[in-house]
Recover the amino acids of this structure.
């Protein structure tokens, strides 16, 4: 049976790091603060917002909610983003997406300063991920995958990593982060010919296709590390991932469960990004020591 790569253990280590940053900032009279920008009342947005706010508060991170009705105008939403850019109390901004169809989401995201973009929602932040120039932050979910690998001592150097999925939210940035860890990376997707033949050759397999159970026993081989990013509600009403856990876990060497894996780490990464954004802001002014 595969070793379980549990998000709970990663969270404990991450939270110690976050609290250290928050304590340093608070000692200088600074409360690292996240603003969550929400349009409308989508149930999944409300659920994520509630969980994120609770996590921030337990880690010494402030959290403010900026809420607009679903029919908010483009101009009013853009003005809110500009106000958040100027507000020195706010160190990170998370806009819950997707936005309603009448809004130009890319235009709104593009208005956000990359130094406050704590989940890579701007083109500038994504460019930073691809170039490694340190601008902005990586998407929280992609970074959560790297935190899991680091915590469990899984060395990527010289290893063959296969990423199944090519979204800008997880797949592509995760591939870039794996390259930065000196892995040799192959990116696949739902139209890859003979997907199983490619994934079986991986040392590290990261499943982020957004398709429940797309990775089955025929896609894996002994000793692999499998990171399952997917989260879905199965026909039985239970949460499941992109990986068929019951079929795959007896074969591979290590695997993240769903739930309790990548998703549970993502919000801690968000908190860490907010604290780091605050540190960067005040380091830039020469008013804080370095950790």
């Amino acid at each position: 049976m595969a070793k379980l790569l549990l998000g709970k253990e990663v969270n404990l280590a991450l939270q110690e790091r976050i609290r250290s940053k928050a304590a340093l900032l608070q000692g200088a009279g600074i409360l690292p603060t996240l603003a969550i920008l929400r349009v409308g009342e989508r149930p999944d947005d409300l659920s994520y917002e509630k969980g994120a706010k609770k996590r921030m508060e337990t880690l010494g991170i402030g959290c403010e909610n900026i809420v607009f009705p679903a029919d908010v105008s483009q101009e009013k939403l853009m003005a809110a983003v500009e106000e958040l850019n100027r507000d020195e109390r706010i160190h990170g901004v998370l806009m819950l997406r997707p936005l309603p169809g009448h809004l130009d989401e890319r235009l709104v995201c593009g208005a956000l300063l990359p130094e406050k973009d704590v989940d890579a929602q701007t083109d500038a932040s994504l460019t930073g991920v691809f170039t490694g120039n340190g601008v902005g932050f990586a998407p929280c979910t992609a970074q959560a995958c790297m935190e899991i690998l680091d915590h469990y001592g899984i060395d990527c150097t010289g290893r063959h990593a296969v990423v199944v999925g090519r979204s800008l939210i997880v797949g592509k940035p995760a591939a870039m982060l794996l390259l930065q860890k000196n892995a040799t990376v192959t990116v696949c997707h739902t139209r890859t010919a003979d997907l199983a033949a490619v994934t079986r050759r991986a040392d590290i397999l990261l499943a982020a296709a957004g398709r429940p159970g797309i990775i089955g026993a025929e896609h894996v081989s002994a000793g692999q590390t499998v990171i399952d990013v997917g989260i879905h509600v199965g026909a039985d009403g239970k949460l499941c991932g992109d990986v068929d856990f019951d079929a795959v876990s007896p074969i591979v060497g290590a695997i993240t469960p769903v739930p309790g894996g990548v998703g549970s780490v993502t919000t801690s990464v968000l908190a860490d990004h907010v604290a780091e954004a605050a540190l960067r802001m005040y380091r830039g002014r020469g008013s804080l020591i370095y950790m």
The longest strand covers residues 33-39. The CA atoms of residues 143 and 269 lie 7 Å apart.
